[in-house]
Amino acid sequence: MVLVDKDNFPRAKPCGGGVPMGTIKRFPYLKDSDFIEAYAYGGFIHSPSLKYRIEFHGEKPVVAMVARERFDHGLALIAVDNGAQLLDGKQVKDIHISPDNAEITLEDQTTISSDVVIGADGIPSTIARKSGLTPQNKKVNVCVFQEYKVDEKTLDEYATTERVGHLHLMYENIPGYAWLFPKKDCVNIGVGEFMPFRKHTTKKVNLIEMYNSYFKMLQQDKLIPKDLKIGKVKGGSVPIYPLEQTYSERLLLCGDAAGFINPVSGGGIHFAMVSGENAATVISNAFENENFKSSFLSRYQQLWMEEFGKDLRMFASFTNIWLRQAEKFIKIASTVILMK
Ligand SMILES: Cc1cc2nc3c(=O)[nH]c(=O)nc-3n(C[C@H](O)[C@H](O)[C@H](O)COP(=O)(O)OP(=O)(O)OC[C@H]3O[C@@H](n4cnc5c(N)ncnc54)[C@H](O)[C@@H]3O)c2cc1C
Predict the structure, then answer these.
(1) What percentage of residues in the chain have a pLDDT greater than 90?
(2) Which pTM was predicted?
(3) Which of 24, 146, 233, 289 has the smallest number of CB atoms closer than 10 Å to its CB?
(4) How does pLDDT run across 142-172, given as a tens digit for each residue?
(5) Is residue 331 domain-resident?
């Protein structure tokens, strides 16, 4: 198996780094290693007007925080320990599928031939586009974010040792939300827009201006240190919904490349990992049966649909209502405070 990546590992990845506890349960090896930077034991979800908020705390962690550079490198090393060859710093430019093999072409025009290809190349995915599985007009959601070092002791004062995080829904009426995720010795601050819901607001969105205003508000509310200097923000995109079809002859698409994202939270690490495992199961069967035809690989789509696809569809219809009615939801829910 060859693992090809355009970047050299360890590499950065635009991300908030929040991993649901369900992911840790599903892949217990994440817990036992030094993958996790910190656990958050509580958080707040704020209403658009900032008048109401839901507060939750737990004796057990509610979310794990990771540094993607280290997390992703650790995962790549597990693949290498299990026999994969890591070919990093090599960009895939094209893919050609024939009845006998799947061939990818790298930037330097060298080719790699194999029985099957998994396109897990994020968004926008070259493999999904070149294989015709992504529609031409596919839209994406956009976010801006930055991570700031804050020494552990100072962060204990601002986010407590529980590492309490914040989500501000429809911040300044952007159709999306802003976040503050404290980790071990840094905070991740971002603002994201859910483009399909833009029609629910007449506001013209400038995410960088929003970010600057959010950063100031966090300082005014004493959620981050007053002397923290705002940094140059980085941009990133996330898919909006899964592709209609995530397989074809000798090819499977996983993670962001397949459009797997939680439309409520913007989280995709869980689905990237689960779909990767689903793909491995199906490909292992394909080798046993020496069958890489589209009809055989379609089992992959059934697996992810059963495991999380139906939930994603349900969440997608919910997001629309959630964002439009966020003020009311939070107002009602704010009367319920989950305490330790
Ligand atoms: C600002 C932001 C905040 C986010 N916050 C969270 C969060 O808190 N929690 C969460 O769960 N999710 C979050 N997400 C989403 C999450 O980052 C993705 O869903 C997740 O990384 C998807 O994993 P993946 O492996 O499919 O793709 P990626 O992590 O994007 O990995 C794709 C890999 O493919 C490589 N690649 C791309 N093109 C090529 C090519 N042509 N040739 C070779 N290699 C290539 C890239 O270098 C990369 O290493 C966030 C996303 C953004 C943008």
Answers:
(1) 79
(2) 0.94
(3) 289
(4) 999 999 999 999 999 999 999 999 999 989 8
(5) no
Mind listing the pLDDT tens digit for each residue in 251-286?
999 999 999 998 878 899 999 999 999 999 999 999
User: What whole-number distance in Å separates Cα of residue 225 and Cα of residue 241?
Assistant: 37
Pair 145, 266: CB distance under 8 Å? no
Q: Specify if 24 maps to a domain.
A: no
Instruction: Assess if residue 309 is contained within a domain.
Output: no
Strands 2-5 and 85-88: parallel
CB 145 near ligand 1, within 6 Å: yes
Q: Which atom of ligand 1 is nearest to the CA of 181?
A: 8
Please give the sequence-ordered ranges of beta strands (E in DSSP) within 232-323, or none if there are none: 234-239, 247-248, 251-253
Nearest CA to ligand 1 atom 1: 15
Q: How many domains is the chain built from?
A: 1
Q: CA geometry: angle at 177 spanning 175 and 180, to 5°?
A: 165
Residue 218 lies in a domain: yes
Alpha carbon nearest to ligand 1 atom 19, residue: 268
**CA-to-CA distance for 204 and 292, rounded, in angstroms?**
48
Q: Answer positive or negative: Cα dihedral of 238, 245, 90, 83.
A: positive
Predicted confidence at residue 323, as pLDDT, reads 75
Q: Which helix (H) or strand (E) holds 155?
A: helix 152-159
Residue with CA at minimum distance from ligand 1 atom 51? 15
Mutate to test the pocket of ligand 1, among 94, 269, 315 (most ligand atoms within 8 A of CB): 269
Domain range for 170 is 37-58+140-239
